């Protein structure tokens, strides 16, 4: 059975809507343009997330001119084009109460725009030149402003199995894949969560290696189209069969990977699993 790439998505601004593409360059920190920008609290530089600001999900971000500009839109505000400042004024930022060092502030206009959208004083920052952040897990790798890992992988088999369980009771609707915000969606293997067992894989000219299973918080309960909370699914159902005792009994869905060889990956590419975790 041939496993292939079903969908590719990068998220230019952490926590905001993704961009689905047919092909992507994959750098050491993940898909090109992925989580290069981050919205932070204007007062202390702490990152903003759908966990506390679900409206971020409905902020649409387009990468323009090869990354020289961004086009942003959201409900009830005027669209904005941002000319990116790659190496300007810096500010200290943090994630999960851990300092990340300095990031490049993108100015007052976009800060006011995000403050209006989120109803909280915010700034937009970009990774600074020379930014160097380690991930963790079996293969740590490098990462930009993603939570801790370069590439999140999920499979259609995992989602199909989850939705079968969700709808079995008759009182809940299936959830779409975007609730889990994966970078690469795989298809072609009928075994749910086979992606958990892949230690190393080659896709196109890219090679990826397993870091950790993806622990899930409240974000999958946010409707990614509207930016509104729509729980308790899928977390309610995941909690019945995907709890991870070694991670504080959190639930998991998908696998996080490090990039061990950069290159290009495209929808339809065959996936060669070169090593399994349980082999």
List its traits.
3 helices, 21 strands, mainly beta, 279 residues, 9-stranded mixed β-sheet
Write the layout of secondary structure elements.
Layout: E1 4-10, E2 19-21, E3 23-27, E4 30-31, E5 37-41, E6 60-64, E7 69-73, E8 80-83, E9 90-95, E10 98-105, H1 108-118, E11 122-127, E12 151-155, H2 156-168, E13 184-187, E14 198-203, E15 206-216, E16 222-223, E17 228-229, H3 235-238, E18 243-244, E19 250-261, E20 263-266, E21 271-276
Parallel strand pairs: 12-13
Antiparallel strand pairs: 1-2, 1-13, 3-4, 3-20, 5-11, 6-7, 7-8, 9-10, 10-11, 12-19, 14-15, 14-21, 15-19, 16-17, 18-19
Structure report:
This protein has helices at 108-118, 156-168, 235-238; strands spanning 4-10, 19-21, 23-27, 30-31, 37-41, 60-64, 69-73, 80-83, 90-95, 98-105, 122-127, 151-155, 184-187, 198-203, 206-216, 222-223, 228-229, 243-244, 250-261, 263-266, 271-276. It is mostly beta strands and 279 residues long. β7 and β8 form a beta hairpin. The radius of gyration is 18 Å and the shape is globular. The model has no long low-confidence stretch (mean pLDDT 97).
């Amino acid at each position: 059975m041939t496993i292939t790439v079903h969908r590719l998505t990068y998220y230019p601004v952490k926590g905001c809507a993704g961009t689905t593409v047919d092909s992507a360059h994959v750098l050491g920190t993940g898909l090109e343009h992925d989580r290069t920008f981050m919205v932070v609290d204007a007062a202390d530089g702490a990152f903003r997330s759908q966990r506390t600001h679900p409206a971020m999900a409905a902020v649409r971000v387009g990468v323009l001119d090869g990354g020289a500009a961004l086009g942003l839109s959201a409900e009830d505000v005027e669209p904005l084009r941002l000319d990116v400042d790659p190496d300007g004024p810096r500010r200290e930022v943090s994630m999960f109460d851990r300092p990340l060092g300095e990031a490049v502030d993108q100015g007052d206009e976009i800060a006011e725009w995000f403050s209006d959208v989120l109803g909280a004083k915010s700034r937009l920052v970009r990774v600074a030149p020379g930014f160097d952040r380690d991930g963790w897990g079996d293969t740590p790798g490098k990462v930009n402003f993603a939570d801790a890992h370069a590439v999140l992988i999920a499979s259609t088999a995992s989602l199909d199995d989850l939705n079968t369980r969700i709808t079995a009771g008759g009182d809940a609707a299936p959830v779409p894949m975007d609730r889990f915000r994966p970078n690469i969606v795989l298809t072609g293997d009928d075994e749910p969560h086979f992606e958990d067992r892949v230690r190393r894989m080659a896709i196109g000219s890219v090679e990826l290696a397993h870091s950790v299973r993806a622990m899930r918080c409240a974000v999958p309960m946010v409707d990614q189209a509207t930016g509104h909370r729509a729980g308790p699914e899928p977390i309610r159902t995941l909690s019945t069969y995907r709890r991870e005792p070694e991670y504080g009994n959190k639930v998991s869905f998908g696998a996080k990977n490090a990039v061990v060889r950069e290159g290009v990956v495209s929808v339809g590419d065959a996936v060669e699993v070169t090593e399994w975790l349980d082999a």
